[in-house]
Amino acid sequence: MDQLITFTSNNTILVIAIILVSLMLIHSLVGEKLRGYSSISPRQSTQMINHENALILDVRENNEYSDGHIINSLHIPLSSLKTRLADIEKHKTQKVIIACRSGHRSSQACATLRKEGFEQVFNLSGGVMAWENASLPLIKK
């Protein structure tokens, strides 16, 4: 025990770093269960769209959406999501994949939909940027 105390006092920064990394690992392993939604890759998303009729909800702003979006995605900006929940109410039991530019705003939208009773909500990990990096198509309208 004396050696542990000596080591800790001589290597305080290292011990703090080990504790922080351990907490981040635990958070990443348990976090999805606590949040109530999962993050999925672009490849997993395409499988879910093609085989399970998943809805793609794009929560980017209008100008971002018009620059290119996933085919057949429904566009509701994050800033309007709470007021437009009636537009997607019929999809409460369906798988809903939420996309934004990088995955941050979509995670907020995932939390909102879970609170509103949507059962199967998924965050597109890396957002539309990851979709493009995977060489998947975007359309412009």
Overview features:
141 residues; single chain; 49% helix; five-stranded parallel β-sheet; Oxidized Rhodanese, domain 1; 5 strands; alpha/beta
Structure notes:
The model has no long low-confidence stretch (mean pLDDT 92). This protein has a five-stranded parallel sheet with strand order 1-5-4-2-3. The chain has helices at 2-10, 12-35, 42-52, 62-67, 104-115, 127-133, and strands at 38-40, 55-58, 74-75, 95-99, 120-124. It contains six helices and five strands. The protein has 141 residues and is an alpha/beta fold. The termini are far apart.
Q: Give the name of the CATH superfamily of the largest domain.
A: Rhodanese-like domain
Q: Tell me the distance between the termini.
A: 67 Å
Helix content: 40-55%
CATH fold-level label of the largest domain: Oxidized Rhodanese, domain 1
**Shape assignment:** elongated
Secondary structure category: alpha/beta
How would you sum up the major sheet?
A: 5 strands, parallel
Number of domains: 2
Strand content: 5-15%
Q: What does the radius of gyration come to?
A: 19 Å
CATH class of the largest domain: Alpha Beta
What string, H for helix and E for strand, traces the elements in order?
HHEHEHEEHEH
What average pLDDT do the residues reach? 92
Strand elements, count: 5
What ranges have pLDDT less than 50 throughout 5 or more consecutive residues? none
**How are the strands of the biggest sheet laid out side by side?**
1-5-4-2-3
Number of H- or I-type helical stretches: 6
CATH architectural category of the largest domain: 3-Layer(aba) Sandwich
